[in-house]
Amino acid sequence: MDDRGIDVGLLEPILLEYQSQKGAVIPILQRAQDIYGYLPEEAMNEIAKKSGLSISQLYGVATFYAQFHLEPRGRHIIHVCDGTACHVSGAPKLVQAVEEEFNLEAGGSDPDYQYTLEIVYCLGSCGLAPIALIDEQVYGNTTSDSLVKQIKELD
Are strands 137-139 and 115-120 parallel, antiparallel or unpaired? Predict the structure, then answer.
């Protein structure tokens, strides 16, 4: 465990599993992110050290793909669609309600890392606009009140 509480030893089985596979950087990063919830600097350094990949290669992949996160995220991930149909149906009001109720800003997390709010630009269900996705659960025809209520019921 490092001085910030990241147990890099948890990476050992992953690195052993992929040690003989060339080009396994994405599954390694995916599995590391599954452990920590994001890709902490200490984990990235450990992966580089043990895998032979350069730190710049790792960061290049992690910053290229939207699935990877370099900052801690909330326990619950809230996506609000702000594509055209959702926007005209009230998505900005949903974002504002969540920001105010849970003390966070779009693109960030609350101070306790309970919630992360992210804006996306299409969830592919325009007929249900406005749409929110909470921990991979879709909520259509959402209102500010119903979205806040759904989030409060998570814990």
Answer: unpaired
CATH number of the domain that residue 58 is part of:
1.10.10
Average pLDDT of every residue of the chain: 93
DSSP state of 9: G
Taking the C-alpha atoms of residue 64 and residue 74, their distance in angstroms, rounded to an integer, is 21
Domain that holds residue 94: 76-152
Q: What is the pLDDT of residues 70-117, one digit of tens each?
A: 999 999 999 999 999 999 999 999 999 999 999 999 999 999 999 999
- 100 shares a domain with 147: yes
Q: Which residue has the tokens 């690195």?
A: 15
Of 56, 42, 55, nearest in space to 11 by CA? 42
